[in-house]
Amino acid sequence: MLHIAVCDDEKNFIASLDDLLQKYAAQTDLEIKVTPFYDGSELVEKYDTTFDLIFLDIQMNQMNGLKAAERIRQMDEEVSIIFLTTLTQYSLEGYKYQATNYIIKPIKYARLKAEMDKWRKRRPQGDSPYLAVSSPSGKYRIFLKTLHYIETFNRSLLLHTEQENIICSKSMKEMEQALRSKGFARCHTSYIVNLFFVKGVKKLEIELITGEIIPISQPKRKEFMEQLADYWGDFL
């Protein structure tokens, strides 16, 4: 199933685009779920990490599409965005937010079909593994390849990623279960590390290839070193 968000402040347009998408679904034997939003701020506030594609109007009253796209890219690096506009002048600006394309309104079915066909061909077939987490600042889809390590922080967790640090309300035990057999290891009561980023271990310190240093506890050192040896062995 494809989960598509449509964000536009014209309700009639959203209904029309929904009809076109369902027509496309019927012709291609796909199941498409459409979730409507009527302003960029609503899309950002209720963002769902299961979205595969977003049709996003640029011109909206409260939060325009470009501002919404900027915020979405902080939460989700890989969701596809197709901008909707009546003005071609916005198209180049939209590509700053890794837009898949832009469509000039109103939309005819032939144009939508061509765009959907092209998007499906370009779309990666294998999904990158990720964590979906909620934080006080919103919902995030964090791809495991960008997650360096996790540490406890004020009764929450702090996820250190390539882009930013994100607070998450999950417990360390829940996170350890979610990351089991995915290249992560618990090295300390308060730390889980992505083995891909480990450069070396010296006494009770782990050095990451990023230069970051995190602790390893004596009780967990033996098991951690065995997990690291197994991981490195798979790549040697």
From TrEMBL:
Coiled coil: none
Modified residues (4-aspartylphosphate): D57
InterPro entries, A to Z: CheY-like_superfamily, LytR-like, LytTR_DNA-bd_dom, Sig_transdc_resp-reg_receiver
Residues in Response regulatory domain copies: 3-120
Source species, domain of life: Bacteria
Residue span, HTH LytTR-type domain: 131-230
SUPFAM superfamilies: CheY-like (SSF52172)
Keywords for this protein: Phosphoprotein
Annotated GO MF terms: DNA binding; phosphorelay response regulator activity
Annotated function: May play the central regulatory role in sporulation. It may be an element of the effector pathway responsible for the activation of sporulation genes in response to nutritional stress. Spo0A may act in concert with spo0H (a sigma factor) to control the expression of some genes that are critical to the sporulation process.
Protein name per Swiss-Prot or TrEMBL: Stage 0 sporulation protein A homolog
Organism field: Lactonifactor longoviformis DSM 17459
Lineage: Bacteria, Bacillati, Bacillota, Clostridia, Eubacteriales
